[in-house]
Amino acid sequence: MTVNTYIITYMRYSVMSSVIEWFIHILTLIELMLKIHRVLKIFNPPLRYGILSLFHNRVELSQVYEPIKSADEKLLILRPCINMSNKFDTALRKSASDLLTTVRGKYYNLLRLMNMKKIRGLYLNRIYAKPILTVSVKRDLNQINFDVLGEAKVTLDNPTLLWECHCNVPRKYVRSKLPCRIYTQDTNYKITNAFRTGLVEIEYNGLKIYWKNLRTLWPPSIDSLYFAHVIDKHIPSKRLRSVLDLGSGTGFLGIYLFNKKGIMNKLVLSDLFLLPLFSSLYNAYINLNPDLFRSVKITASNGLDYFIEQNKDKFDLILCAPPYLPHLGVHSILSLDAVSGTYLMEDAIVRAGMLSDSLIICYSSLAEPEFKKAIDKAREMYSKLDVTDLYEVEVPFRVLHALSNEDI
């Protein structure tokens, strides 16, 4: 004979409780829609129709960038404090992180909207890109063509940079009698002015990436284009369930991988700054078919902080093309723009193993000491660490604020 003990739970469900629950759901939905309405009014300055802008006239991409840019400039000022490595600066770092959360919190509903799959397409469809300059890059990188609406054209054969102009580089860093290949063709500065101030469309291997010269938004540079070669050659065309593009910028690397290597369950585009997050998502929307785009998500995070704190996201692969200019003892250089500092590179190397078995990352020889230091630290944390050199290319250094800084 066996004796089994069961617990039976009964639920009494009245019509009144059902009505109350539905009423609460409706209030919650209305509250969310009002928040989204206020966010859309901020980010559609030419229209200011809020949620009605989803069904109203369209807005140009550059106009949406402007209000987001002001928030990013605040985050950029905080970055030197957030990424301090000195253990005695813990309190200052925490205060800066709290302030960053407060600043970003004002835009939380925008980020939330951008991840609402049934709504974001309606919003993104109201935005259109009107580039004044098209930059077409040949797949083998042996030629770049610049075209300003058919009014001016510049062609560079065998380019060493995406923008191979050294006119603003201090003379002592330029080889003698070396002409600027862009200036000699761009006699009226139409190409130069368009590249520096306007919306740019960068075409490469079937992708169209939109970019504008802003402090927190870096274009798919020559480093990223060579990175695409690595993706083509070294990542097999197999099912990748989830991928993280860390420090996504315009989203080029993650979108390129997603576009070329098949369907994934999830592509996460992550960045510290808001403008790259929005730019990444818009570029994904433009380049991916609806089925692929549904798998794209954006996440605001300082390096891997958010993902490790949540302890739920695991990835088959992490891609990272981080800033690689060491601050070289001049911390103020970190607040000049988003391309300086090695925090993201070191953070990715040391902690990516908590989230994935594979990290593909590029870095400059300028950051060789920081790279080796991070590798040594990672070796102490993991039982096995295999580091394989996939590609090496020599490119000129042309980060103007570094070359012009007398303290370096």
Keywords:
single chain; about 400 residues; alpha/beta; five-stranded mixed sheet; five-stranded parallel sheet; 14 helices
Brief write-up:
By secondary structure, the protein is an alpha/beta fold. The chain contains 14 helices and twelve strands.
Q: Distance between the terminal alpha carbons, to the nearest Å?
A: 86 Å
The chain-level structural class is alpha/beta
Mean of pLDDT = 81
Topology, number of strands: 12
Radius of gyration: 24 Å
SSE pattern, N- to C-terminal = HEHHHHEEEEHEEHEHEHHEHEHEHH
Structure description:
There is one protein chain. Helices cover 40% and strands 14% of the residues. It has 408 residues and is α/β, with parallel strands linked by helices. It has a domain at 1-57. The protein is globular, with a radius of gyration of 24 Å.
